[in-house]
Amino acid sequence: MTDLVIIGGGPAGMSAAVAAYQKGIRDILILERDHHLGGILQQCIHNGFGLHKFGEELTGPEYAWKYEKQVKELGIAVKLDTMVLDITEDKVITATNSQDGIFQIKARAVILAMGCRERSKGALNIAGTRPSGIYSAGTAQKYVNLMGYLPGREVVILGSGDIGLIMARRMTLEGAKVHAVCELMPYSGGLARNIEQCLNDYNIPLKLSHTVVKIHGRERLEGVTIARVDERRKPISGTEEYISCDTLLLSVGLIPENELSGRAGVSLDRITGGALVDQNRQTTVSGIFACGNVLHVHDLVDYVSEEAEIAGKSAAEYIRSISTEDACKTEEVRIPLQTDGKIRYTVPQLITEKKDVTVFFRVADIYSNISINVYNEKGEKLLSRRKIKAAPGEMENILLKSDLLCNAKKLHFVLEEM
Amino acid sequence: MTRELVCIICPRGCRLKIETEAGKISEITGNGCPRGVKYAQDECCNPMRTVTSTVRCEDGRMVSVKTDRPIPKDKVFDCMKLLNCVRVDLPISIGDVIIEDAFGSNVMATQNIGVEE
Fold first, then answer.
1. Which of B10, B63, B110, B113 is the best residue to mutate to test the A interface, defined by the most A CB atoms within 10 Å of its own CB?
2. Where are the beta strands (DSSP E) in A197-354?
3. What is the DSSP code (8-state) at residue A60?
4. Least CA distance to A59: which residue of chain B?
5. What is the pLDDT of residue A332?
6. Most buried of the four, A146, A414, B14, B77, by CB within 10 Å?
7. Chain A 169-198, CB below 8 Å of chain B: which residues?
8. Among candidate residues A76, A64, A66, the one with its CA nearest the CA of residue A146
9. Which residues of chain A fall below pLDDT 70?
């Protein structure tokens, strides 16, 4: 029996481990499938990480090292090259690596920190042939930054989220020609800063409301046909344009990796793709917590670390409470949070304690001059916050004070345009 | 004359407005912090960029690196050429200087490679 098993040794897993340790838990084990800690940060060699958390602008690996160093110094146990195959509702974890073979661990508490995978070409159904030269942006990033290979020389990128923008710059710096970044939506999902330093700096055209409609090439990609799309994101006939290229990078969405969570009986939120959690980041299975990108896709790793601290501290408290058989809760509190269509989701989705809680959320579209309002089940407005602008690509947060929670059995989050 | 640009110093991406009169900057607005002012001034006459890239180690692995301060924007590709010529001995740790005085900056490692072995 291990007190705390953490699945994933990226920024979320490491931060959760350190937080649990600082709350007195010593029997911790991090299971990581890669041969090093740090998760996706190891291949994010650009800077922009850590400004909130450390007041410095760090590259991904430097940010990861801040936590890896603590994990090492605290002597927290880590198994690398270890793949978790299964986890049951009573927290029996089955994992495998080449040293231990297949083994099982029973845990008192589990923290899910598996991160995301990228949406694949198969999910997009682009017509045409199936040549080589088509990669997800993250795969291309791994090839370039970790393995030192240039995946191609004439590039088109589909998707203007930050990964696509960063790779536009990276490929250009390594000598490739990026012909265009196409974005299905009429706006980019990436940071304005990245449009500037990754596209404008290199005169790479950003084609909004465009998508790739056909792939050409027998063995290797030879070109793509792109087209403008209408308000319903359907290609407009007659707007087709052929771009000769040998590489297509797809930056079309991240999907939280929750296959294991499902096996443990954890209920998922259809919109986030991650677990339904309360303010302690505890899932619907008692003693199983979730944090980081596996819970909801973040923009800034600084917030991942903070969220993981909540999960780590809560897991520590949980472990102590079951060990001492505390009857902890004096009052049964169960406040669900609901959103209108304009606010896509909130994390947490449930509040189970009357204490201050910061609620994170994303809006469904680009809005200007709005107010975010929180109503209770009686329709009484409990909180209102004005915002000059909000965009889907920027996660927001709002603080709910404990006295506000005393007036509510349900909370409705509504976006009102002024 | 008015020029609008997005500050790249931090992820906030403040929209800056730069007023120039007779080729000189008269006013800078829109910055969320003092660093934006310096960015706007530099951008107008001497744009600078930090370079983050990778360098090959002696055993074929890659180590991520960065210039420890921004270098002139028009020297970025020259910097890349320099980085692609280097072979780094192992072990290498975060902060180790790989190239001194590259276009006014020092190129340093941002990853530990071969440190535990």
1. B110
2. 206-208, 210-216, 223-228, 241-244, 247-250, 254-256, 288-290, 335-339, 343-347, 350-351
3. H
4. B110
5. 80
6. B14
7. 173-175, 191-193, 195-197
8. A64
9. 325-331
pLDDT reported for residue B117: 54
A48 contacts on B by Cβ (under 8 Å) = 10-11
Longest dimension (CA), chain A: 71
* Residue A373 tokens, joined: 């309002």
- Residue B13, chain A, CB below 8 Å: the answer is yes
Residues 6+ apart with CB under 8 A from A253: A118, A119, A159, A161
Q: Is the ipTM of this complex over 0.90?
A: yes
What's A220's DSSP letter?
A: B
Residues A59, B11: C-beta atoms closer than 8 Å = no
Q: Which of B91, B52, B99, B79 is nearest to A49 (CA)?
A: B52
Residues in chain A: 418
- Residue of A42, A59, A394 to mutate when probing chain B, most B C-beta within 10 A: A59
Helix (H) or strand (E) holding B81: helix B76-83
Distance CA A371, CA A366 (A): 13
pLDDT of residue A331: 64
Nearest-angstrom CA–CA distance, A162 and A60: 14
Query: Does B66 sit within 8 Å of A148, measured CB to CB?
Result: no
Question: Which residues are bridge partners to A343 per DSSP?
Answer: A363
Q: Go through chain B and tell me how many residues it has.
A: 117
Q: Do B49 and A51 touch (CB under 8 A)?
A: no
Separation between Cα atoms, residue A6 and residue A113, nearest integer Å? 7
Cβ-Cβ pairs closer than 8 A, A with B, add up to 76
What is the distance between the alpha carbons of residues A167 and A169, in angstroms, rounded to a whole number? 5
Can you tell me the distance from the alpha carbon of B7 to that of A127, in angstroms, rounded to the nearest whole number? 39
- Identity at A384, one-letter amino acid code: S
Nearest chain A residue to B43, by CA: A201
CB contact under 8 A, A61 and B94: yes
Across chain B, which has 117 residues, the per-10-residue mean pLDDT values are: 89 89 87 91 92 96 97 97 95 97 97 85
